[in-house]
Amino acid sequence: MLSIRILSAVLLLAVNLPGHADAQPAFPTKPITLVAAFGPGGATDTAARIVAKELSIELGQPVVVDNRVGAGGAIGASSVARAAPDGYTLLLGTGSEMVVLPAVKITPPYNTLKDFTPIAEIGTVTFVLVAHPSVAANSVQELIAQARANPGKLSFASFGMGSTNHLLGEFFMKKSGTDLLHVPYKGSAAAATDLVSGEVKLSFDTTTVAMPLVQSGKLKALGLLSPQRSDAAPGVPTLAENGIALSVVGWVGVVGPRGMPAAVVDRLNKAINKVLAMPAIIQSFNERGVTVVTTTPDQFGSFIKSEVAEWSQVVKDAGVKIE
């Protein structure tokens, strides 16, 4: 009887040893893929790489950025929505493919609120209305006057039908009582090239992309679409200051497939927020026109829900739907 008791005690001790086969290893135990749904060198790709570098150190595993480009961001986002919900495939999502794209598609590629797990917001970006130097207007009010005098003549570039900057143009027209000519392009590079050359006259883009072109004299900034002025665009007034009730901000954040374990989501959220608190990271993002934001998963989820509601209304008002 004594030997049986001793054997039972030994077995119980073995079960509770740290190295027992049933013990679950701490997440992560292998490299993590962070999908960017847009091409190398763009604002989304740059943000992904800034986060991935320090997150690799914080998590003790490589975080590899994977550019999965196409269909306005839907290819990259869809690949993450279909991935195993184990935390090893994530998306650095933006309002463009997460909110705007599903709203404008007749058949949405995914349901943002049901197919993804919010993990952590990264930051917000400011949009700016820019013009080619050949445009006579040097302020938003002068531009509006010129556009009203020449309906359908002033052109604005977008990255495609139903893209965020297309809808911003539609929204601007509605709020300002103007009629601009929409010129859709297949991506940001082609749109920027024609804008700088003067083939197209206006664009609604992020300060990250637009302000370097403004500072080099290739474009001029007329107004910010943010609630307040931005250090990323010194001296540039907001549209609200010009009497246009249009206030929109872009955002970036990390999401994963639906059904991720709460412990994994919490681990990733805390690691990302720790990275975002680093002064060097804050400065790096600020230099690119991104204001760092830290949230809990629930806070980020609530924010996405509000964005879906707001942009769905914008799309409805603009009457824009695409295949």
Structure description:
With about 325 residues, the chain is α/β, with parallel strands linked by helices. It has 12 helices and 10 strands. It has 2 domains: about 30-125 and about 250-320, Bordetella uptake gene, domain 1 (D-Maltodextrin-Binding Protein, domain 2), CATH 3.40.190.150; about 125-240, 3-Layer(aba) Sandwich (D-Maltodextrin-Binding Protein, domain 2). Strands 1, 2, 3, 4, 5, 6, 7, 8, 9 and 10 form a 10-stranded mixed beta sheet that branches. The longest helix has 22 residues, at about 295-320.
Helix-strand layout with pairing:
Blueprint: H1 2-15, E1 32-36, H2 43-59, E2 63-67, H3 74-81, E3 89-94, H4 95-104, H5 112-115, E4 116-131, H6 140-149, E5 155-158, H7 164-176, E6 181-184, H8 188-197, E7 202-206, H9 207-215, E8 220-224, E9 249-257, H10 262-276, H11 279-287, E10 290-292, H12 297-318
Parallel strand pairs: 1-2, 1-3, 5-6, 5-7
Antiparallel strand pairs: 3-9, 4-7, 4-8, 4-9, 4-10
Helix pairs in contact: 2-10, 4-12, 7-12
Distance between the termini: 76 Å
Number of domains: 2
Q: What global shape is seen?
A: globular
What is the helix content? 40-55%
H/E element sequence: HEHEHEHHEHEHEHEHEEHHEH
Number of strands: 10
The number of helices is 12
CATH class of the largest domain: Alpha Beta
- The class by helix and strand makeup works out as alpha/beta
How many strands, what sense, and barrel or not for the largest sheet?
A: 10 strands, mixed
Radius of gyration: 23 Å
The stretches of 5 or more residues where confidence is low (pLDDT under 50) are 6-22
CATH superfamily of the largest domain: Bordetella uptake gene, domain 1
> Into which percentage range does the β-strand content fall?
15-25%
Task: Write the CATH architecture name of the largest domain.
Answer: 3-Layer(aba) Sandwich
